[in-house]
Specification:
The structure is a single chain. The chain folds into two domains: 7-75; 107-215, no CATH class. The protein is mainly α. The protein has helices spanning 2-72, 79-86, 108-111, 122-216, 220-231.
């Protein structure tokens, strides 16, 4: 009986011992599986990142090429914008700031006028006013549009030549003339003071003595006549 009991207890212990590693083995297996799965995920992420970076690089290169092409392409600027940029400080509203053409500012009332006794029909007067103003305005615009640019070019050349002559020829010559006259003035002033001033001073003293002697040698009759004239 004792042997049977011992055999049973031994069999139970063996069963318990056999159960313990059976329970532990799946845990280790699951841990290993999870670690392998994490490693595989990390590897997949690395591969995906490499693919993304490899796909991003050509896109960046394409963008850089587009930007370079856009920079290289010349920007087309309209003539009006270019003219506006070069004439920033030009007064377009008041085009005669210095009033150099006031004598040409002629209105309808300055040219035509009907006195009170002789009035034409009102509609005729209004029509003449409109015709005068509109024809003057539009004909001036047409002639100015045709002649303004070539005449501006001609006058610009003319005044450019005048500026060149004045700045580079006339002003230096006048400056040289002023310098020469300065030294001529100094020399002439010295000559007058050294030679002519003593001569004229002595001549003045001489003639002043003649005048004093003439007043002393006057007769008494002339003196009485002068006194009588003064009393009269």
């Amino acid at each position: 009986m004792a042997d049977k009991v011992g055999a049973k207890s031994g069999s139970k212990q063996n069963l318990n011992e056999s159960n313990v590693p059976l329970l532990e083995e799946p845990e280790n297996a699951t841990g290993k599986g999870e670690s392998q799965g994490n490693e595989e995920k990390i590897e997949l992420k690395g591969v995906n990142d490499g693919k993304e970076t490899s796909t991003e690089k050509p896109e960046k290169k394409k963008k850089e090429k587009k930007e370079k092409k856009e920079k290289k392409l010349p920007q087309i600027v309209s003539p009006t914008v270019c003219a506006a940029n070069f004439t920033v400080g030009l007064n377009v509203i008041d085009r005669d700031e210095k009033h150099i053409s006031e004598q040409v500012n002629v209105l309808f009332e300055d040219v035509l006028g009907e006195p009170d006794p002789t009035h034409n029909f009102e509609f005729v007067w209004r029509l003449t006013y409109l015709i005068f103003n509109f024809t003057r305005f539009w004909l001036y615009r047409l002639f100015a549009a045709v002649l303004a640019i070539p005449l501006a070019l001609i006058w610009a050349v003319f005044f450019a030549i005048i500026n060149v002559k004045v700045i580079w020829v006339i002003n230096p010559l006048l400056r040289i003339f002023e310098i020469v006259l300065h030294y001529v003035h100094r020399v002439w002033n010295g000559l007058i003071r050294t030679f002519l001033d003593p001569f004229f001073a002595s001549a003045g003293l001489l003639f002043s003595h003649f005048r004093n002697a003439a007043t002393l040698t006057t007769s008494p009759s002339s003196q009485t006549q002068s006194v009588h004239q003064q009393t009269v």
